[in-house]
Amino acid sequence: MISLMIAIPLLFAFVSIVFKGLAKYALPFIVLLNILILLIASTPVVENIGGWKAPFGISLVLDDASYYVVLVVNLIFLLLSLIPQIIDKGYDTIILLLLTSTNGLVLTGDLFNSFVFIEITAAAAYILAYHRNNPYGAFKYLIIGGISGSFYLLGTIFSYVGAGSLNMAHISNNSFGQLTAAIAILFILGLGVEAKLFPLAGWVPDVYASGSSLTPTILGTAITFAIMYLTGRIFITVLHGTFLDVLYILGLLTVIVGEVAALRQDKLLRALAYSSIAQAGLVVAAISLNNIDSLTGAYFHSMNDLTAKFILFPIATVVIKGFEKDRLAGFAFSVASFSLIGFPLFAGFRSKLLIISSAFSAGNYILPAVLFFASIVEAAYLLKWNIKLWFEKSDTSNNIPWNLKTIVLVLSILLLIIGIYPDLYLDASRKIAQSILDTQGYINSVLGGI
Amino acid sequence: MIYYISIILIGIGVYGLLSQKNLFKHLISLALIDTAINLFIVSTGYINGKEAPIYSEFTPIANFVDPLPQALVLTAIVIGVGVLALGAAMLIKIKEKYGTLNVEEIRRGDK
User: Fold this and answer.
1) Which chain B positions have a beta carbon within 8 Å of A135's beta carbon?
2) 3-class SS at A202?
3) pLDDT digits over A143-172, tens only?
4) Residues on B contacting A at a C-beta cutoff of 8 Å
5) A68-104 tens-digit pLDDT
6) What is the DSSP string of A153-173?
7) ipTM exceeds 0.95
8) Domain range B2-48+65-110, its CATH number among 1.10.3370.10, 1.20.1090.10, 1.10.287.3510, 3.90.199.10
């Protein structure tokens, strides 16, 4: 049943090449169908493609973690499909392909299969990066993404050589011996580009700040969240938390470099792109602490970040004249940026507090220090942009479409509600964290009696 | 032995990416790294003196090399070709927009 979530969008992606313009109207129904499949499924579901049993065939795994991640990804695509103005002609096929590969990336329980889905995601993302005639940024992304994909493949092959299997649960059950270090480093290189870690994130500002509102809205939210899930799954469930120190240091460096670079930008979109890098670094650093509270905080923060970015990026691309005539959009923008900074009573405050308290109880004082530094820098540049946009004089409005205005308003009210009653996001992220840490449960549910 | 060849090829590819200014040479370096990794994958499944993994009357005993890496490398080659074709298409668009493929001249044109 859950393989339909990959098959149906792929089928419609092919159909939409022949019937141009159909995909735009089909997209909301496809995503609703996916959500319906999720609602009637009860975790854990393990589906063996072609009837081949787990370590030999490819299996799709829907446990608590992948359930909530797929749900969030599909909800983001649903919101995106309700703003059809920003999906240009011809790009609807790419959106369907991206939905296919992101669902597959999260659901798959096979390392080589996840490589294939990462490459499809990346190829769709290169084409999205080209949106609004940005070939140089897209080519830069293609080169660095292609190399990281190759290293991910090499890591997969090393784990086949080391553990004798490609199935994640089976690999987790076997041991690598001496190859563990090589595998972990290759996976850091392979996931670092999509996860926006510091030395590998040079493509992000060129791609996110090309002036298209479609590209950053989808790449910075759904894809980032799916990659964060995969990072946790591979490094904690499959590799049992080895080499997390490297990920921790890279994450902290990403936070510092991203925030300082964001402060120095004189274009709003570039500042938001660097802020997106910094938030990804914070999430990776929190994941690498490898305990239940820090993982909960990491995924909670990632959800808050993607909600805020879904407001900030579309508004930042359409607003050129300030908020004087668009007070509602301005309200949503301000709420989203306050949540990103982490002011009390906003959603970001809750997740940052959780990450800090989990770091303190693990005896770690460097992550909280970096987090405080990052929050101060964030407050500096986001408040600067808020003041600039609110006090700019203008006599015409920015022509923000009514559906985009409604969606950002609903999301900003959601951020306020999460700030007061965080249970909605907190429960989901706690389930994700528990399920990622529960290696033995994952192995049992996939391999069954073997 | 063949491991060393693929490691050297990866090194040449990375060197090309870091040292060259022409974007087309970046794409060629990417192709080189792809090929090197495919070579490596095939070599991991190779066992000296064993036969191709096909059941027939001439091979009653399954004295085979590992067929899985060969299946994987087919998929990897297809993906690599797709990415290279996309990169070449983007190079044409870069040439149309900036009139050059040199990184430094493109950066100057952006400012």
Assistant:
1) 90, 93-94, 97
2) coil
3) 999 999 999 999 999 999 888 888 888 888
4) 17, 23, 26-27, 30, 33-34, 37, 40-41, 44, 68-69, 72, 75-76, 79-80, 82-83, 86-87, 90-91, 93-94, 97-98, 106, 110
5) 999 999 999 999 988 888 777 778 889 999 999 999 9
6) HHHHHHHHHHHS--BHHHHHH
7) no
8) 1.10.287.3510
